[in-house]
Amino acid sequence: MSKPAVNVDVDVDADVVVIGAGPAGMSAATVAARHGLKVVLLDEQAAPGGQIYRAITRATPERLDVLGPDYAAGKAIADRFLQSGARHVTGASVWQVTADHEVNYLQAGKTHTLHARKVILATGAMERPFPIPGWTLPGVLTAGAAQILLKSADVVPSEPVVLAGCGPLLLLLAWQYVRAGIQVKAIVDTTDAADYARAVKHAGGALLGWRYLKKGLGLMRTLKQAGVPFYKGATGLAVEGKTNATGLRFASGGKEHVVPSKLILLHQGVVPNTQFTWSLLAKHDWDEAQLCWSPAADAWGELSVPGTYIAGDGRGIGGALVAAIQGELAGVAVAHG
Asked: How high is the pLDDT of residue 128?
């Protein structure tokens, strides 16, 4: 039986350093460690899971019920990682990765350096900024921040909430709030007709992912049954209020609307977190579909910087399942490269 993962309190050299403990990072570290490599995984959080599976190892049955089966699926990935023998450095903020595989990070107020044969970046995604009038008022958060509070501390709004923007996270968070007994006053969707027209060209690929379509339709059905108002093609969004949020103003269906609320959650999708790949001067490509830059990588995830790999949403937005598979591929690549 393999040794459990342990926390590291001293600098060590490694065959591979993995940065990020989401599905990609955990999967990469697990595969590499099971191939006999000396693996160190660095992550800011106190427990594995990343953003998508945040606090999964501490999740109560009640939290699992609210967040749903997709979140609960992360428990198996985390368990495999924790039994892999990989070393897990928690509370580690990585501030530099060099082309010769030197990794510098801050932990407990002290700087540490690791030298590795290979590096796997699994830094995930970040929310796309969504600046609208009033977005800096107290009472305005991103949907991602609100979900972090839900996953990590079971914190839910004490007031009815409005969710605005676009992307599947809006529907998922609204669904989770409904399951938690929170009133969702409205979902204000900014997706326009041109967006739907562009999506039609990819209908064939979408049908191949019919499970995701089924999931999305299921979320929308639950929200409709709960009586959540849904506004389509919204434009001119602005948060009402002088000293704090009091509502959201927008146009939809040829009419002006104002939905009163002290809590407005904004979301405009996610984009790859490319801070390290840009600092490494790695090659990037413009992703016309996702309207963002993504690092260029081969089938195994290796960047234009030799010996440095990337896996998960930091490579391109694909979700937790794709991230885990890409992590496994990167783990195999460093083991046999």
From this structure: 93
